[in-house]
Amino acid sequence: MAESLEALGEPGMVERLLHRVGESLGSHKVVLFCPLPGSDDPLAAYQWGMPDDFLARYANLIQGSDAWSEALVRQQGEALARGGSLSQQLVSTPALRRGAFYADYLKPLGIDSMVNSIVEASPEVGMHVLAMYNDLGQSEFTPEQFSRLRAVTPWVRSLMRAQRRLQQARRHSSALERTLDQLPLGLMHANQRGEVRYLNEHARAWLGVEDECRILLRNATGWQARQPLQLAQIHPGLTPLLTASLSTRSPVSARLQTQQDPAPGTLVALAAPLRNGPGPAAEPLAQFILVPEAPPHAGATVSVCSALYGLTPAEAALLPLLLQGMTPREMADNRHVKMPTVRSQLASLYAKTGTRGQAELAQRVLRVAALVTA
User: Where is the HTH luxR-type domain (predicted)?
Assistant: First the structure.
């Protein structure tokens, strides 16, 4: 089970799973029928040991009617109740061999009989069936083989559900990546070893990174096999930021000189630890937010934000400092005021703009800047 879970998402994972099931239960032909309601492929299936066109043959055959098809319809309730069927439970083997299903489908595929187990049956996922076929000349499957197939079915069900969850997570990840690429700032994730886990479009362009680094899913398939990109390979100033941020568990900022075109000459990099996932083994990650040190039209952006959100002059004066990646202490020193004053002004800014921290507020201000410069 653990070995199979490690292979989730890899090409051919399900086929290898079917191979193992077939070998352990004495069959060279195994099919997992797994159509999803509303999908474009109502006969979706994985297979091991069957010819590539077996689904097309099956689709043509079920358009007609014979003893096998009628038995499937007539005894569907009984099959659901017992969790599957031996072929001889649906129709006697002599009757099966006289029908079109045998002549046009089973025999050309080198099959005499079959046994199947219902993996899942629900309106959400439809009917998923795990079927094994014997070779011509072999005896029928036995009740003992049916029992053994039923015994491995929960294992197959667990793996298929995990596979669906991974596919759903990947769809959500792709949607999130598209959203992050639209932000008017650079965004980067790195783990405590300095291995880059993600960069959005601005971060790649400004830092001159060609590696895609789109690994939003932790433990995503193939991550361990690839050569990770190191922060030190991108810019020498990033690794000290990572170390300081993770050791103090607080945001740390620095200015980075860049040579990439069309990147700005100086970037302000703010590194902040990300909240760990569940479990004691969750990998510590840090998030880097990159913005130009002197965003274009900064004055106009501050004026527009002041009008949009009803900011006081003192609150508005913090916005340029925020975009430079300053911490509250640095803002207080720059403004020659006390820390409680800055904290109170930041809290008011968060409330007025509907944001929850410096990173989110910076993103909000940069969106306004993008509109101002459009």
Answer: 308-365
Q: Please give the pLDDT value at position 343.
A: 93
Tell whether the model's pLDDT for residue 295 goes beyond 70: no
Q: What is the 3-state secondary structure (H, E, C) of 176-222?
A: HHHHHHCCCCEEEEEECCCEEEEECHHHHHHHCCCCCCECCCCCCCC
Sign of the CA dihedral running 249, 180, 226, 196: negative
For residue 4, pLDDT beyond 50 = no
Is the pLDDT score of 220 beyond 60? no
CA dist., res. 142 & res. 114, Å (int): 10
For residues 146-162, give the mean pLDDT.
87
Amino acid in the structure at residue 117? S
Going by their DSSP bridges, the two strands 29-33 and 186-191 should be labelled as unpaired
Delineate the domains of the chain, giving CATH numbers in brackets. 2-172 (3.30.450.40), 183-293 (3.30.450.20), 295-374 (1.10.10.10)
Nearest Cα residue to 329 out of 251, 217, 277: 251
Percent of the chain exceeding pLDDT 90 equals 16
Is residue 132 within 8 A of residue 84, CB to CB? The reply is no
Could you tell me the pTM of the whole model? 0.54
